[in-house]
């Protein structure tokens, strides 16, 4: 996410917001990512952060089931096996907390995976890349080789929808493209 903010010229510092990311019983996927993005932003503000706080959360959704970060090797490989040869949605919520409150935008993109052999799933897990990624893959990394189609926002699948982020920043009077030459 820091890399994406830098891409659009937004000066920032990174501060982790340690929150419980468990899905609540009967929680809809959209409500889940929205809740976590808001919670992360609010947590940082409650620590006394005076600057605006931008937070995001991403979930992979297949047939209504949320695929978060894999908890183990077996979990990660099972996620890839479920996604292989199918189209899933990637929901990314971005929240901006300022002294005026928290505002939120959500992006929904669709990603189609090719079929993936078991040995390739296992080799991908061993790269270390999928360990902390929603759905157990990273579009911006080695996981890109699985993707046959993307409908929506590449940056949202990475974890921060830049168009929606720019809207939030603009509406709050926070510039992007800082230092860009006109």
Mean pLDDT: 94
Subunit arrangement of the protein: single chain
Q: How many β strands by DSSP?
A: 5
Poorly predicted residue ranges: none
* Order of SSEs: HHEEHEEHEHH
Strand content: 15-25%
* Helical percentage: 25-40%
The computed structural class is alpha+beta
Contiguous helical run count: 6
Note the main sheet.
Answer: 5 strands, antiparallel
Radius of gyration over alpha carbons?
17 Å
Q: Tell the overall outline.
A: globular
What does it look like?
Helices cover 32% and strands 24% of the residues. With 182 residues, the chain is of the alpha+beta class. Strands 2-1-3-4-5 form a 5-stranded antiparallel beta sheet, with helices on both faces. It has 6 helices and 5 strands; from the N terminus they run ααββαββαβαα. Helix 3 (73-83) crosses helix 4 (118-126). The chain is globular. It has helices at residues 2-7, 29-46, 73-83, 118-126, 154-158, 162-171, and strands at 53-62, 65-67, 87-98, 101-113, 147-151. The longest helix is centred in the first third of the chain and has 18 residues, at 29-46.
């Amino acid at each position: 996410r820091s890399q994406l903010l830098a891409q659009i010229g937004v000066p920032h510092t990174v501060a982790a917001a340690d929150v419980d990311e468990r899905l609540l019983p009967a929680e809809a996927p959209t409500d889940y990512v929205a809740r976590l993005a808001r919670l992360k932003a609010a947590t940082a503000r409650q620590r006394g952060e005076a600057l605006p706080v931008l937070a995001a959360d991403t979930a992979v959704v297949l047939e209504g089931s949320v695929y978060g970060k894999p908890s183990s090797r077996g979990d990660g490989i099972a996620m890839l096996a479920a996604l292989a040869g199918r189209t899933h949605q990637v929901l990314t919520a971005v929240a901006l907390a300022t002294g005026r409150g928290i505002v939120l935008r959500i992006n929904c993109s669709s990603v189609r995976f090719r079929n993936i052999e078991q040995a390739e799933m296992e080799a991908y897990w061993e790269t270390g890349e999928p360990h902390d990624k929603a759905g157990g893959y990273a579009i911006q990394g080695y996981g890109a080789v699985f993707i046959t189609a993307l409908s929506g926002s590449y940056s949202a699948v990475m974890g921060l929808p830049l168009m929606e982020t720019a809207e939030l920043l603009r509406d709050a009077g926070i510039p992007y493209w800082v230092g860009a030459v006109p």
